[in-house]
Amino acid sequence: WGKPLTSDEPEIRREALEIAKRLIDVCRWLEADTVLLIPGAVDVFFDPASAVVDYQTVFDRASAAVAQLLPYAESRKVVLVIENVWSKFLVGPHEMRDFIDQFDSPWVGAYFDVGNCMASGYPEQWIRILGSRIARVHLKDYRRSVGTADGFVDLLSGDVNWPAVIAALEGVGYKGYMTAEMIPLYRHYPEILLENTSRAMDAILRR
Question: Which pairs from 154-157 meet CB under 8 Å and 24+ separation?
Answer without folding.
Answer: 154/182, 154/193, 154/196, 154/197, 154/200, 155/180, 155/182, 155/196, 155/197, 155/200, 155/201, 155/204, 156/200, 156/203, 156/204
